[in-house]
Amino acid sequence: MSLSLSEVKVNFSKVDFTKLPKPSRNKGDRGQLLELALGIPNSSNLTDMVDGELKTYTRGESIAVTQLKHVLPEIFDKIPFSQTKVGKKLQQTLYVGFDRDNNFLDSITLSREVDLRHYQELEEDFNYITEVIRYRYNTGKELSTITGKNGLLQIRTKDSKDKKGNYHPIIWKGQQLSNKGFAFYLTGKFGRNLL
After folding, report:
1. What is the reported pLDDT for 18?
2. Are 191 and 97 contacting, i.e. CB atoms less than 8 angstroms apart?
3. What is the structure's pLDDT at 183?
4. Which residue from 79, 102, 139 is spatially nearest to 20, judged by alpha carbons?
5. Is domain 5-194 in CATH 3.30.110.30, yes or no?
6. CA geometry: angle 82, 63, 188, nearest 5 deg
7. Distance (Å, rounded) from C-alpha 108 to C-alpha 67?
8. N or C terminus: fewer CB in 10 A for the chain?
């Protein structure tokens, strides 16, 4: 059973942040270990908690949100941001920041209720990015890095080669959008200014 954000915050005082490893090739290791330390089971649920998401990050580095391919049906069906996987994941997020030496800096919770303008800017960035994706699809052009006008949200490549040395192209309704996987990220600028 998943915990609520308020339950997770109670457990925060019990965590020894010095025992969390510095991210290596798999940047998600630290986040998964922190989830377990906070009592959040590792799962494939859309959000880590029943009412929000936990994101650990290194200050100044981008923060992965979700794979683009999971959101393509919502993008092409023009689903409103708040009802998309990206909108739901970022609706209420507990950000836990570390410096480059892996020292815990602080944490902050952002939500529509805490900072409406932030959520509106995320929505504007998402809408801009999805407009560009649809335009490129309609004109037969492949994707590249796209950053929203507010500089908070972007899509860029996120892929690794399979055992045969191949990337995983993104194909939508028979048309290749990219020769490798893409994901939504919160930008490094966002992470620098967060804490």
Report:
1. 84
2. yes
3. 97
4. 102
5. no
6. 110
7. 24
8. N
**What residues does each domain of the chain span?**
5-194
Residue holding tokens 């994101």? Answer: 55
**Two tokens, residue 151:** 């500089």
Q: How far apart are CA 45 and CA 60, in angstroms?
A: 27
pLDDT one-digit tens code per residue, 130-185:
999 999 999 999 999 999 999 999 999 999 888 999 999 999 999 999 999 999 99
Count Cα neighbours of 103 within 13 Å in the Cβ-side half-sphere: 3
Size (the chain), residues: 195
Pairing label, strands 92-98, 53-58: parallel
119 closest CA partner among 149, 91, 156: 91
- Is pTM, for the whole model, over 0.85? yes
User: Residue 49 gets which letter from DSSP?
Assistant: B
Distance between CA atoms of residues 154 and 187, nearest Å: 7
